[in-house]
Batch of 4 targets.
Target 1
Amino acid sequence: MGKLIEVDRVKKVYKKRKTKERITAVDHVSFHVNKGEILGLLGPNGAGKTTTIKMICGLLVPDEGNVMIHGYDIVKDRLKALRHISAVLEGNRNLYWRLTVKENLEYFAGNRGFGRREITPKIEELLVRFRLKEKENELVNNLSRGMQQKLAIAVAMMADTDIILLDEPTLGLDVETGYEVRKLLRYITEEEGKTIIISTHDMPVVQDLCHRTVIINKGKVVADEKVDQLIQLFDTRAYTIKLGDPLTDKQVLELQQAFPMYEYGDRLLNVTLEQENDIYLLMDILRGNQTKIEKIDRTAVNFEEVFMKLVKGAGEYEKVPSSS
């Protein structure tokens, strides 16, 4: 599987307005995107994710490192690199609101150098595929948010690039439309052979769609792994323990120091271990006051829990051996 995007130790530093303070937004971030995959690029607000996206799209120049798209340097060969990527920005900013659905498709295809004769069949195909045919003569300003989002993705498809970057593709959509957008994105990768990067806070979308995820926090990559393997990793370390006795203040303090992500209440202890062998440390803490243990269960986790544990500092993670 070839690498279409390679982000190599990129760094970006900003100067605060009216001060001399320098803030490192992205601190030597590296990752790649494989051909034909859906990659989730995630991070909390202020983590450096948006700055990274802007460097990939050529909107910002890295202070250090480089971004290669289809073998072209985004700075040195900007135009050649950008021929291979199109972006759907949050808020549907890549649409003209006073043009109709069809006019938007024609306009942006023309911007990419396509002639009317060659794009007409493609436009008709996309209007049907994206269920926009009945709205083809409607002004974008009059469309629902879901219709606008589908049109924005269709516009990106008109560019016929290898890579499509989607910023919050399901933000503000109802359940039905969100499901429809997911279905379209699967079609784009599986049938059209496109590569997709999704930047989102919608964790169910990541768990449902993404093959792999790169999580950025405080300007650094804290995880780069297949989604199912990350879930498997944290699933094997998450425990719910029903206690027969309340914990002492000393035990609570020891838990706080050893397991920052623990939760305790009503004699139920939920804890995620950083290392599998930490189970012995946990048992030592409970044994310290001869605390009775009535039941121990491994807890099933979802990707939202995995994400929160990683960005809140659950510690270094060990990669799960790949089954492929």
Target 2
Amino acid sequence: MANISVSSVERGLAILELLIESGEGLPISEIALHLSLPLSATHRLLQALISAHYVKQEPLSERYVLTLKLGAIGLRQLAGMTLAKAVQPVLDELAKKTCELVRLAVVEGDDMTWMAEAQGSTGNIRYHPPISSCHVPLHTTGMGKAWLATMPEKEAIEKVVARGFDTEPLGPNAIRTVAALRREIRKAREMGFAFNDQESELGLSAIAMLVGDRGKANHVVGAVSIAGPSFRLSREKLVSFAEPLRQAILQLEQIWPVHAHANNRGS
């Protein structure tokens, strides 16, 4: 077996990551420049990747592009996972960054259902109650309000009114009127995310954002929230979570359609 150095493996992986970001491929000169390598060394690495069928060179442009092999490996991996297992690393990383509880819910028909979570708090005071119901309350949670904001306003209000404002456990700031619900829906629509300010229970604050299906315009498949004790999660603190939350959502939106496609291939 040929000797393979760690540096060669790292550089080979760096080439793959570079080509992933460039859909049209790259000439060897740009690859070498990015890796700060001589053209001769870059050429050897590319030839090794070509021999392993991960990369090919376009005959006309002479640019190097990825083959479908890397994607096929990813599909095989995801096909053996449940969706919860596939998304768990993303939730774990977000929980680690924010040091709070992260939860994922999925849309199932007219309901939103809890599916996975990750605890990031390492202190003595943490928010991590048991999930008493599999269904996410719509008008008292950030997740629910963010989802309602994607619907026609009349439909969203009718959905909540039909269930009743007092059917879920309530916090001191819970929405109890149609007028208040309308205001919250409009705020969530403008911001692109929603808050829970002691609405589902006393002492809990959270921010939530939706997960969309990239293959279907305006189609919501789930939501992610970051929650913790209100005394340390001011509105400003929650807003500071918006960007890491958005980055996690982008990762989940990449996993979601691929995972669904992988499962469909196996069914």
Target 3
Amino acid sequence: MQLLGPLLDVLRGTLTERPIRVVDIGCGMGFVLRWLAAYGALGDDVELLGCDFNPTLIGNAGRLAREEGLRCHFRVANAFTLERSAHVFLSTGVIHHFRGEGLTGFLRSQAGVGASALLHCDIKASWAAPLGSWIFHMARMREPLARHDGVLSAVRAHPREVLLRAARDGGSPLVFALFDGRPSPMPILRTLNTLVGVKPQLADAFRAKLGTLAARLEAFS
């Protein structure tokens, strides 16, 4: 919500169509969207849609949303061939799965269907990330596969230069920056960073809406 809330405020001042569509890519069982629907107070003019390639996860996400009485929807979709346009694409813990041209293509596919903005949150690459992930997953996860996958995700986290280069090399009409992307001698204090992409005409207004949080957002380019 630190980034999505201000971004929606900016879009409300520039978009004439409604609803404002927010699509969560690789949503799994829909935890992020279900949390936003329950606690985000996004407004009735926001539509939440979760997409994942795994039909079992999508089925469970939809079932949970119905049981919880939440206003969000889920469907099976391929992240590289998104058929439905959105104003905002977001993801959490997904982009480290894509490498090289796959990462560039993943970001390009969203800009290609007319997105106004992208928010992709993932593990921040640092010396502490694998250790911190191991401690967390050993404490919270029961299955060996879950413990292994969590640490491997931290190992595969993209450095800031890789993320920004992939975003900008894709011929995207958006400009990009990282939120909390700068290296830190104490990376345990901020373990995540977010790749932010917006249409150039929205960049200044978005930064202004962030208020004091703007200091944690790098310059758009």
Target 4
Amino acid sequence: MSEQIDEQPALNRRLNGPLLTIFGLGTMVGAGIYVLIGELLLVSGSFAPWAFLLAAVVAAFTATSYGELASHYPKSAGEAVYVDRAFSKPLLTRLTGWGVVLTGLVSSGTLANGFAGYLAYFYPGAEGIAATGFILILGVIAAWGIGQTVWVAAIITLSSLFGLLAVLAMSGRYLANLPDVWPAMIPASGGAWLAITLGAFVAFYAFIGFEDMVNVAEETREPERVMAPAILIALSVAALLYVLVATVAVLANAELNLAGHSAPLAAMVSHTGTRWPAVIAVLSMLSVTNSALAQIVMVSRVIYGMAQEGKAPAVLAMIHPKRHTPMVSTVLTVLVIVLLATWFPLLTLAKATSFIILVIFALINVSLIRLKLTGRIRRRGVWKPVVGTALSLGLVGMSLI
């Protein structure tokens, strides 16, 4: 069986540092700020910016662990490989790999619902059909080729960033509310910090994406050198934008009642009386498209990598001879996402995604600790994965309490 897999065409190394960074940024920008800001206002209210900031801190420690591990083990199915190298426990490796797959599948279902919510801005009542068609089209793009996929993602990422900057630029009237609202935004009680922590559990979904970058390591040139800085740059840019937009959303909430809104950023520019709300709605759909496309790519590569490692059926490692993409795993990914998107609501999917990925993040940090303590990776900086483990598990524990 392994001989058959070895004869398969190889994945193409088409990504450089800048494209990899844009790929990761595109995965994050859209997944949370365009879709979840309304839901986050329901959970954290005026403390939403702090929730994003706390989620960014939690993500940052784990991001450094991912960067260090990816520089030593630049393989598809990165998380499963890291756990396997650290513990050599086949069952734990499989659980980790399939946990990552489940995260990507559920996340894509969330994004499909988010896309449908923004499409309802133009065509109310078309959500179910929109979510299904959305995923099927993205599946075709993902199967076409990694080079084409990432260039599409790069163009959409630039559009998404433009949309967020446009919302900020047109928010002058809401910034005038800052002196009145600012005192209520300062967390000065235990209840406030509880709201921030619970909100961070939801907001953490917005940072899911940097870990997807390690799963295209086999399609990246010099991943040992470019992966770690690309992850940190993408995460930093996303965090800055999230905090700024969340702050404006809090200021606008009293006037627009954005909590729970299905198209919150479009509503934030509704006061302009121009076509900007429609433009932002379109850019929101493009941004969500980008995140979902990256998730489909990530899931299919994890399944492919596990199959190559003998941790999944060999047929899932099949590469299309012309497209050089894992075709069977891509098709399987798309079909499961369609089912999830049509069965579960957005917030339920987002919370489930955050829970699973935080558990996986804790396991990845523990794996790095073990590899450092056993001398397979240099020990310097062992405190970082220790803190990353504590923060990830702490956020999970708070959400359960």
